[in-house]
Structure formats: C-alpha cells, structure tokens
Amino acid sequence: MGRILGIDYGTVRLGIALSDPLKMFASPQDYLDAKNRKKLLSELKDLCEAKDVEGIVLGLPMHMSGEEGESAEAARKLGTAIEEELGYKVTYWDERMSTMAADRALADLNIKAKDRKDKVDSTAAALILQGFLDSETYF
Fold first, then answer.
1. Residues 19 and 129: beta-carbon distance below 8 Å
2. Domain chopping of the chain, boundaries
3. Packing angle of the helix pair 120-135, 98-108 (nearest 10 deg)
C-alpha cells in the first residue's frame, strides 16, 4: 500500500507530511527548501520513491473569499510540474487557515515562537493531509 504526501505550499519552503500506509494518519516531516525548483523537484522525487508515495495532496492557498490569487496560481504551477515531470497525480486541497491552526496547535504544546518557525509549515501540511484523509476522497 502506498502513502500519500501532503504539501503546504510556500515560496521559501514546502511543508511536508506523509500518511501511514493505511492512509489513516498524517505525520509532519522535515520541510523542503522551495527556492530552487529543479532541486525541489529532485528532492520530491527521491522522497516519493523512498516512501512509496502513490499520490500528492497540495494545499491550495486561497483568499478568505474563496478566490484564488497569485499564491494559488504558483501552487498550481508546482502541481503541474509534479504531474508532468514526476508523474504523480496531484489533488488540490483548500488550505485556508491551515498555517494559523498549525501555529496555534504548536503554541498549545508550549513550543516557543522561535522554535515553531521550523515546524509550522510541516504541521500545516499534516493538517491539510489529515483533512484529505478524513474526507476519504482518495485519488
């Protein structure tokens, strides 16, 4: 059974989460640097192969109104590159408020603000992926 990879999109780094093989739980992983697209795609490919990923859920940053803006357009470009260059199916998932919820969850765990910076993106990715897993709308 393959896993599902969750991504919290950002221009500086991507938060990463992985499902368990039964697709019940999402776990945050280390984030990936997003500044170099070629290197990023190579790292994503290596991660997907190493973890037996069968599909990817990419958080789509949307305005509170539900409209898509520049960030959503950039996330869709990444999703297209993943599909075309790596061959993985990408499903987009509304990620509104995921980073705020992740930061609040980390604060509730008494993690200091300076220490949350490196964890918030992957925690947001885990929230995005868990929402997808809970919806049971697999590829």
1. yes
2. 3-135
3. 110
Summarised one tens digit per residue, pLDDT across range 67-118 is 767 888 999 999 999 999 999 999 998 875 555 555 566 555 566 666 656 6
Query: Strand, helix or coil at 134?
Result: helix
- Asked if 124 contacts 75 with a C-beta cutoff of 8 angstroms, the reply is no
> For residue 97, what are the contacts with CB-CB under 8 A and spacing of at least 6?
none
Dump the DSSP string for 57-117. EEEE-B-TTS-B-HHHHHHHHHHHHIIIII---EEEEE-TTHHHHHHHHHHHTT--HHHHT
Q: What is the pLDDT of residue 94?
A: 83
CA–CA separation, 59 and 76 (whole Å) = 9
CATH number of 3-135: 3.30.420.140
